[in-house]
Design brief:
With about 375 residues, the protein is α+β, with helices and mostly antiparallel strands. The chain is about 30% helix and about 20% strand.
Length: about 375
């Protein structure tokens, strides 16, 4: 397995798939493989402890913090989340624009938003890079992008009635704010105290410390001719709010520990993070008969169109993609997975007791060549 994966990564870097790639895989009892190839920056080798922006892989970690508060009775999955976050008491649904480039037209939502809606992406919130209407609203109202970590970035309307459509968006950023409200702590402190610290994820944080910055990967962008170049990028280090939907930095090594906690039913190395019944609920498809549709890009510089496992129904848990069928040569049906905008990916397979994490640092998301390499990595893990 090690030889096959080493060769796979070296070949991918040589062919220009990525500037650098780091991977790891394991099972409930430990690590099976770690590997890396290429560079994180000029003259700096990529490694399993290279620090990367994990972006939306943050969502599952913030979800754990929210579920801990559900276990403690401070949050409710199905009560109105406005009981905790008054700013969500009167959400509006975008129904169109008065004219092209004109004033947005809004109506009051008929249903309350719940924490479950926020965690399974059925609240109606979206992202401008996947929904052009949100982008048009943001332009009309001067709303900043979410990666600015300004509270004003959350002032976008719903795209649909709560509970009626799966729309990938900023819901888990609000879930992070709900955690802050009921704990009286900033999200970074909650995660460190109750999730990251107990799991031994020492390199995962919103703020880069000197040790993490010394191992930080540069961000890269693929030009139209296919070449990759370094670009300036950093999540704000003094944010107005901690972006629970995408603000964390970390390593593949750290994230595998998070994945292994799920394989162990909510515990790792003696640290109980979630109760077994909470783990079972989180792993359950929350959105049927809805399903995760193909996601179309509205900002090609940020993301390609996305359709993972074409032809297969995909559900969503709290908060993971769930594949309904076995993947040939890879994960079993009912596995959990998601990704981050800078082409970082993971899967958790409870049936076959396997998990894997794969990281590059490049845009746009869902790079077809990166996805092919990720699939080959997954197949190598199972073949081994």
């Amino acid at each position: 397995m090690q030889d096959r994966i080493d060769a796979l990564l070296r070949d991918a870097v040589a062919k220009g798939v990525a500037r650098g790639i780091a991977v790891t895989a394991g099972h409930s009892q430990g690590v099976l493989v770690e590997a890396a190839a290429g560079e994180r920056a000029a003259g700096q080798p990529m490694a399993p402890d290279t620090v990367v922006w994990i972006a939306s892989m943050t969502k599952a970690i913030t979800t754990v913090a929210a579920l801990q508060q559900v276990e403690a009775g401070r949050l409710s999955l199905d009560g109105p989340v406005a009981d905790v976050l008054p700013e969500l008491a009167h959400p509006k649904v975008l129904v169109g624009f008065a004219a092209e480039g004109g004033e947005p037209m809004l109506r009051p939502a008929r249903k309350p938003i719940t924490l479950r809606h926020l965690l399974n992406h059925t609240a109606g919130f979206g992202y401008d890079f996947f929904n052009a209407q949100i982008g048009a609203y943001m332009s009309a109202r001067g709303v900043p992008g979410i990666i600015t970590c300004q509270r004003a970035a959350l002032e976008t309307p719903l795209m649909a009635e709560p509970g009626e459509t799966w729309e990938y968006g900023i819901g888990i950023d609000f879930a992070g704010l709900a955690v802050e409200k009921v704990t009286g702590q900033r999200l970074d402190a909650v995660l460190q105290e109750r999730v990251l610290g107990p799991l031994g994820m020492a390199d995962t944080a919103f703020r880069l410390g000197p040790a993490q910055r010394a191992r930080l990967s540069a961000m890269h962008a693929r030009a139209p001719d296919g070449a990759l170049a370094e670009i300036p990028f950093e999540v704000p280090q003094e944010p107005e709010f901690h972006m629970g939907g995408g603000g964390l930095y970390g390593t593949v090594r750290d994230y595998l520990r998070f994945c292994r906690m799920w394989l162990n039913g909510g515990t790792l190395d003696g640290a109980r993070i979630l109760a077994p019944e909470t783990v079972r609920e989180a792993m359950r498809d929350q959105i049927a008969p809805l399903e995760v549709p193909p996601i179309k890009s509205a900002l090609p510089a940020s993301s390609h169109d996305i359709e993972l496992f074409p032809g297969m129904r995909k559900g969503w848990g709290l908060s993971f993609l769930i594949n309904d069928e076995d993947v040939p040569g890879g994960r079993a049906a009912g596995s959990l997975a998601w990704a981050g905008l800078a082409n970082t990916y993971y899967w958790i397979d409870p049936k076959r007791d396997r998990a894997g994490v794969f990281a590059t640092q490049q845009l746009p998301f869902a790079d077809p060549r990166v996805l092919d390499t990720f699939a080959a990595f997954e197949q190598a893990v199972y073949a081994g």
